[in-house]
Design a protein that fits this description.
By secondary structure, this protein is of the alpha/beta class. It is built from ten helices and eight strands. The radius of gyration is 25 Å and the shape is elongated. Helix 2 links the parallel strand 2 and strand 3. The protein folds into two domains: about 230 residues, Spore Coat Polysaccharide Biosynthesis Protein SpsA, Chain A (Alpha-Beta Complex), CATH 3.90.550; about 70 residues. The longest helix is centred in the last third of the chain and has 34 residues. It binds uridine-5'-diphosphate and magnesium ion. The site of magnesium ion has 5 residues, from loops. Magnesium ion binds next to loops.
């Protein structure tokens, strides 16, 4: 017997879950036809929803013993929900999938085949189009991936989804990273393992609304930078060097100029400009260092990644 766990983070998804359940059970039946030994568990993680998500999930649980759930005491974010799901899963393989069908379940047979027949530890998906997404959002998303690949050691694949099937080994490796600043895409690639990439066209969500505002995404990208790169700190050091060198040259220049031509009291505006410029640079650099310090502070508190209210 072999078990496949399907982890589904849900935040206010009462409308989408019935569609999702219908699709995933269809794909499960299809898979069990090709792999008679395969059984399933569907783990719904309710991320502190305020709508009827839990009622829908509990009803499914009543009908289908493969359904399991864990409900958070409040909204902890998708990253925490994925962690909780991986922790709760018992499968030999685990797949993480959004509840809104933007991670097409019909790719699952192909993904499963990659891990059981083709010798991969993981099969991940990326969307090759961003059709149906606001232009400005796609633009910044692209920019973000380009930036991240330049400043981080781990690889960030443009369009990569959190939709991914993993072997138990990889899941355990991910669970060992107990950090509270969880940028799952980064964590997936940080732990390594052989990954097959499967591409698909973007699909719009089946029902309900996206939980991401533009500023939410912006904050998310800062999390990623702070979590997976120390390049901004190197930037601070480089800038410090450049500015110091510049200041040194300026001092030499001013001393020589004063010795040669005397010291008429002028240059007040340029003085103010210089003061303002350096104050700004200093604030920026302190801010960058502060951002890392803040993360370190939160991390040292060692708080749990989520708090469960109920589970079954
Ligand atoms: N989600 C979650 N917690 C949150 C936000 C989102 O568990 O705080 C879940 C959500 O229910 C969905 C998945 O994460 O299953 C992806 O969210 P969404 O579809 O809103 O993001 P998008 O696809 O628009 O990037
Ligand atoms: Mg979505």
């Amino acid at each position: 017997m072999s078990l496949l766990s399907v982890v589904v983070p849900c935040y206010n998804e009462e409308k989408a879950i019935p569609f999702f359940y219908q699709e995933i059970t269809k794909v499960s039946d299809e898979l069990t036809r090709s792999y008679p030994d395969l059984s399933f568990e569907y783990i719904f993680i309710d991320d502190g929803s305020s709508d009827g998500t839990m009622d829908v999930v509990k009803k499914l649980r009543g009908q289908d013993s493969r359904v399991r759930y864990l409900s958070f005491s409040r909204n902890f974010g998708k990253e925490a929900a994925l962690y909780a799901g991986l922790q709760k899963s018992a499968g030999d393989h685990v797949v993480c999938m959004d509840a809104d069908l933007q991670d097409p379940p019909h790719l699952l047979p192909q993904m499963y085949e990659a891990v059981v027949k083709e010798g991969y530890d993981s099969a991940a998906t990326r969307r090759v189009t961003r059709k149906g997404e606001p232009k400005i959002r796609s633009f910044f998303a692209r920019l973000f991936y380009k930036l991240m690949n330049n400043i981080s050691d781990v690889e960030f694949v443009d369009g990569a989804r959190d939709y991914r099937i993993m072997s138990r080994k990889m899941v355990d490796a991910i669970l060992e990273l107990g950090e509270s600043n969880r940028f799952t895409k980064g964590i997936y690639s940080w732990v390594g393992f052989r990954t097959k990439w499967i591409e698909f066209e973007n699909v719009e969500r089946i029902a309900g609304e996206t939980k991401w505002s533009f500023f939410g995404l912006l904050r998310y990208s800062f999390e990623a930078i702070l979590g997976f790169s120390t390049a901004p700190l190197s930037f601070v050091i480089t800038l410090g060097f450049i500015v110091t060198a510049f200041a040194f040259l300026l001092i030499v220049f001013i001393v020589i100029k004063t010795l040669l031509f005397g010291d008429p009291t002028s240059g007040w505006p340029s003085m103010i400009c210089i003061i303002v410029f350096f104050s700004g640079t200093q604030l920026l650099c302190t801010g960058i260092v502060g951002a890392y310090l803040g993360k370190t502070y939160l991390e040292t508190k060692n708080r749990p990644i989520f708090i469960a209210r109920e589970e079954d």
